Amino acid sequence: MQLLNVTVAQVAAPAIQAGLGAGPGAVQPVLAGCTLTYACLLIPAARLGARYGYRRLFVARTMVFTAGSLAGACARTPHR
User: Fold this and answer.
1) Cα gap 11→45, rounded to integer Å
2) Cα R_g (the chain), whole angstroms
3) How far apart are CA 10 and CA 40, in angstroms?
4) Is residue 34 a contact partner of residue 7, using CB atoms and an 8 Å limit?
5) How far is it, in rounded angstroms, from Cα 11 to Cα 7?
6) What is the tens place of the pLDDT at every residue in 34-55?
7) Does the predicted model carry a pTM greater than 0.70?
């Protein structure tokens, strides 16, 4: 799912940048931050999955991902 997410975000980056009226470097730090966050949470998520169940963690992660994507889609400017 992460590879799909990063690929979609990279392909959509020029359209996101144009839609928000952002400068040339405003979208790349956001994409890098998403990838870095994923990398940092990979091992703790595996441990939580082993402890609480992979299916339960997958459902929770999908819900958080959907909420985050929805919040990002509602952005009107590249700033907070």
Assistant:
1) 27
2) 15
3) 20
4) no
5) 6
6) 788 888 888 898 899 999 999 9
7) no
